[in-house]
Amino acid sequence: MNLTLYGYDDTWIAVDCGMMIRQDLPNSPLQVPNTETLAALSITPKALYITHGHEDHIGAVAWLWPKWNCPIFATPLAAGLLRHKFAEHQLSSAAIQVVEPGDAMELGPFTLRYLSVTHSIPESCSILMQAGDYRVLHTGDWKLDPNPLIGMPIDAAQFRALAPIDLVVGDSTNAPMPGHSGSEGDVAKALAHTLRQCTGRVVVSCFASNLARVLAIGLAAQQCGRRVSLMGRSMERMVSVARGLGYLDDFPPLVPPHDLGYLPPEEVVIIATGSQGEPRAALQRLAQRRHPFVDLEPGDSIIFSAKAIPGNERPIEQLKKRLAQLGVVIFDEMNHPELHATGHPAEDELRKLYQWVRPKTLLPVHGEARHQAAHQEIAASLGINAPLAPVNGDMLAFDNLGLRCEARHPQPPCIVNQNSVVPHPGLETGSHSTRRGSLFLALPVTATDTGWCRIGRLMLDASATSPLDEDSFSEWLDDQLEEIEAATLADLRQALQPRLIHWLANHLQHMPDVHLQIMATEMPSSEALGSTF
Q: Most buried of the four, 29, 142, 194, 516, by CB within 10 Å?
């Protein structure tokens, strides 16, 4: 959820404040960062700095900012999206201050500068901060894209001028991926080539925030003599904000969805939300023939210009089956990988950035444990010290003695329920017996052909409970995952919940309050399997 706090001389600032979707809970509610630890430690950020406008970086601001009531600094696109969120929450947007890439500012002992980077949304920035004698580069989400379509490539000279950096807090998401992440310019060429091959109506589904992709689809459609229409509230909002900032000046005129029925199918391209199989998104309604303005027909084409997010594999497969039953042609990452490029740096890009900024120490963040481990290996090969792979709730210290973990604070999940943020109730046994202690369990899983399996380390904090044999518990969990048949993470959680309560009741002297989170992860490559489990 990307809420990071930096403190120096009792002054604290926050970088990003995102949310996540709890796919393992009914109705997939939103989860936001837990601020109880901050309150217990008397930490209140004096300002919030936003690196870019993705939901996992801004999605919780409207929920948590009222606790802090501090200035919010964001680039124009992220600021525009935040203003929409504040209006929905009936909050004043006066605290939102627009900064441009390259701007510098001071707050107490901190001096900060926004540095433009390329990512899958415009105006993404790294933040260089200096406090005392320490210079820290918070990379945010980034990649090296020589042809990003919207915006300029990363200025290598600007980053070389930063060297040496004391600490990089760096994106690990694609650290295990060899080579380069790919360019939006190459994806645009592939989309244009694919569109020229299509007959009938074409629907392209991508992330609404990837404005370079949206622009590429619109221009490719125009080259093929097709009209463009948007479907999905988030897509319409993102395009509206981006147009107001001048990012889509070359985008072709839009056809309202209610006019699509008047156009021949071969003259239509629809850019739709729903690439992840979301039940209420536009693409799902099209697949179920529930859209009020368009019915897909045999010979139409669907292009998935997005990668499946871990945990969404099965809903996406179900969506594709419904589409196939309608007789449409499907293009996706499996049969046409050139139709998508990730927004995060692969190994060669990480190496190049670190050769530019020459960091003394690396803190690998984002991604899963295996991504952080791969990032640490890259750092070691470059002679960069990377002693820690942090988890949520870690209080870290960085000084002349190096980087170390001073304390670990468990983070009970907080979900958005009926427009308020509430602690997740954990697992309810139905009894009213007094619980003793708390057990925090984060279970990383991936979908397989036959069911589910655990990937990576089991994140377990049972320090406040009666003794627990973690090895036996892990083995039991693995056996349960093999046995349970469940189509979604929510189904898996529902099936695992009573079994988990029963096992704990039989193996612990006192039944604790249990907080369970099931997290979808990516299946590692075959070379990494030996070191992952």
A: 142
